Request: fold
Amino acid sequence: MTDHQDVRLRVDKVKKVYSRDGKEFEAVKSLTFDLHQGEFACLVGPSGSGKTTLLKCIAGLMAPTSGAVVLDGRPVNGPARGMAVVFQEYGRSLYPWMTVAANIELPLKIAKLSKAERRARVDEALHSVGLEQARNSYPWQLSGGMQQRVAIARAVATHPSVLLMDEPFAAVDAQTRADLEDLVRSVWKRHNMTILFVTHDIEESVYLGERVLVLSSSPTVIQDDVKIDLPDERGQLGTRSLTRFSELRAHVYGQVQIAKTNKTGMVTSRQAAVL
Amino acid sequence: MSVAQRELEKPVAVPPQRDSSRTPSAVAPYKPLLLGVAGSLGFLLIWQVFSAIGPVGSHYLPPPTVVFAEFVENLSDPDFWTSVGYTLRAWLIGLVVSSVAAIVVGVIIGSSTFLRRATHSTIEFLRPIPAVALIPLAALLYGPALSAELLIVVYACFWIVLVQVLYGVADVDKVATDTALTLQMNFWQRVRYLLFPTLLPFLMTGIRLAATVALILSVGVELIIGTPGLGQDVALAQINDDAPAMFALIVTSGVLGMLVNWLMGTIERKVLFWHASVRGGVKS
Amino acid sequence: MKTLKSLGYFVGLPIVLIAAWWAATQGGGSFYVPDPDQLVTAFRTVWLGDGFTQDALPSIARLLVGLALSIVLGVGLGIAIGSIDWVRWLLSPLLEFLRAVPSTIMIPVLLLLIGINDAMKVTVIVLGCLWPILLNTIKGVASIDEVQSDTGRVYGLTGIDRMRYLVLPAASPQIFAGIRQSLAVGLVLMVVSEMFAATEGIGYAIINFQNRIDIPEMWSGIVLLGLLGVALSVLFQIVQGRVLGWYEGLKESAND
Reply:
């Protein structure tokens, strides 16, 4: 496993409390973890475990009630340069009035890169996701999987320090998801990126990550930090049939179940059916 | 991911979207209302001051106090109510007649591909013709009478509602139609259970749009031809150099307009309570 | 063959109607309705002659200026108001009231305040056309998709850039709906203000003809207004097709 040195992202005792109708709701109790350069970490947890809340806090879209998020040594007080996000709803994240190339180019324009540099990066990003021929299409002319690839290209083109992905493949079909998972890993390797990948798909988290952080249900804390010691070269067929994969998956699964039942202490019949 | 797992992922609790941790939560829901009242009062204040010290002068731009006094005075004047009645009469009859005609014509045309294609160019040409162009004709034909107003209002509103009805008829679900046919429903049953519900949201949109236009045109005709009503009153006030009266009538028309909007909104909600989530026909 | 059929549908009914009109007015036309010959002659004499520069051009110019002003003001203010929640709440009741006032009723007031001139007529048009555009812009801006907005924030889209690349395009379908409504209102106000108080203009000309019982000339004016209405509508659709091409595509793909 690659030895990651510098800390790219530090999440330090992040807490988020919502107030609604006078009542307070502690979505996130206290989350602390570090992401190192080049690391691929997955974040798993049951629904209601504040995954999206955490992601928004890290991305700077939302301010935590207390605690801090530090990117490359600088505190995150709002959306930060160096952080890119891929949202789940690709259809609503890509701008339908712009072509694929224009969508990818937009953040680069904002960052005031030269025309030549922008062009180069757009070409490179399109190449990474295998969509060179779609550069002049509009997002809504593409399939769901292709649209998400465009969103990934857009994020990658900004050469981010940290790439956040918020359940990006939840809304695509299984076959497409498999392709996209492999795509993310190849992009990760090629650019030596630091990725924080949020998902509720346990198998996906084990397949993709070097590390799986399991969140408890709210008030959320980190329940477990599982090191995934699977080989670096992964393939859908090969890796998923390894014994170690099953072990890791079962472990994470077990942790998530504990997380789910932590609050009520009771396992509902629906949950039992899957257990 | 299995269906079961997807089911399990249904949210346990629902944190609110917006972070309301700044405003004390007792006040927060009333914020829009309070601000709105503040804004309106602020406007009145500015108007009052501007009228007194502004370039126009209070003769031509009377302050709100004077205008509202006049407005209240009107409310006890029977002639005022007669005028309002005249305008509303034209508005109502025009709206109803045009809507009924538009429904009939629209359903007939919409149900036949041939008719739809044959009438398309004619409709697209006649539709943008401003009804007000016919005012002189109406004056010639009827003089300052209700019929003159109706000619204009009905002409304009007919096209507005017709267009919506045509959208509605075109929107009838193909699958539902096939189902109805296999269920051996006769023409009237299909109209009642299939056509009508599909048509209703579009019809409501059309009538709502037409209601606003009908008011504008009623007043406009009264202005020019002199048919009795609010428009004529405003014209007379202008001749008499009576600014307070004019402004009071403007406020009246605004109140009337808001009542019409509110009425249309309420009717639309009542009629479409079952359809509110599936609103089509916003192609105005 | 297909284009021939389309052409047939396009001109079929109009030809039938015109033929019926011609047949009905055989023998010189009635008092109220001229025969086709009279109408064409009148149209040519009036509108292709002096009437063009004297009445038609000024009217159209005023209408276009009024519309342009309304669009600039409406979109500009609309973006400002729509983007800031508390401003929107502050002005909401006032705007609702002002928009409910039937714009025709403002004509005598403005006559009193400004007088019989171009400024007054343009002001009337602006006062009427502003509301649909303003309110639709506000609505469009205030209902921008949250994910689109978050995406913008993440990638550093702020200020003018945000207006240009996100707000304006996202709100443009709604804005265009507002502009379409205001086209109709503008035409109404142009005509009515000229019929009520003017010294020239298409509306003024038509009322004049009516007063002098020049029926064919009166009808020629009505036809001109019809042509104007159609021309505006077609022009609008062309522009909309260009600017909102992406929106059409988006909606169509959503319906698949």
